[in-house]
Amino acid sequence: MEDPVQTAAQGGIGPVLAASGIVKSYRRGLWPARRSVPVLRGADLALDAGEIVGLVGENGSGKSTLMKILVGALAADAGTVTRVGGLGYCPQEPLVYPRLTCDEHFDLFASAYAMTAPAVQASRESLYKSLGFARYARTRADQLSGGTLAKLNLGLALLADPQVLLLDEPYAGFDFDTYQKFWHLVADRRRAGRSALIISHFVVDEERFDRILDLTEGKTVPR
Ligand SMILES: Nc1ncnc2c1ncn2[C@@H]1O[C@H](COP(=O)(O)OP(=O)(O)OP(=O)(O)O)[C@@H](O)[C@H]1O
């Protein structure tokens, strides 16, 4: 069967994720020196089905803030976000339960996604294989290396095969082999009409992205 989202985007119906005029300020300091510091000043973004987009900007430019707003983990002061289909989010700091094993994490997330047992099993095995961490299936999260923890973090975001994947610095802790596995996985998903927004401080392999957006002075600028 054809992917309805992909068909919609190919037919020009619209993006699978769109943000328009996003404004966000943080409050800093203690009273009476408390002040509002603007981070996003009307940022726009649109992601079509099957698109891989890079979001690049210097430290503190607001990339994570924008991603948290896209996911719905943080409220914007102004602007709108619209989404079509499921969303997978991989935060910069892995959010895991130290005492649970990788298998137990997948089970926990699968029940949150209301996945059937065969679907979980198939997705989990495929993720272990494509990211290369099957041997840690029964290892507790607090005994994993930083890189394997990053694989678990990514695997959990991918478990339910979301239409859009939002990744905040996904490959910082990856060795070169894992980095390549990561891009194979992204390319496979892209062929299936899935999209990804990838945050990075800098882009090494620009050709792997369909587009790059620079976040500067609170706005996204196409490169
Ligand atoms: N909860 C918060 N309260 C106050 N200020 C914050 C908060 N979160 C982020 N900031 C500030 O907002 C600005 C943007 O932060 P953000 O984490 O979005 O940037 P970033 O581009 O993702 O940075 P990095 O590349 O270092 O991860 C920074 O100056 C940061 O100090």
TrEMBL record:
One of its GO terms (molecular function) is ATP binding. InterPro entries: AAA+_ATPase (IPR003593), ABC_transporter-like_ATP-bd (IPR003439), P-loop_NTPase (IPR027417). Residues 17-221 form the ABC transporter domain. Keywords: ATP-binding, Nucleotide-binding. It comes from the Bacteria. CDD domains: ABC_DR_subfamily_A. Pfam families: ABC_tran. This is ABC transporter ATP-binding protein.
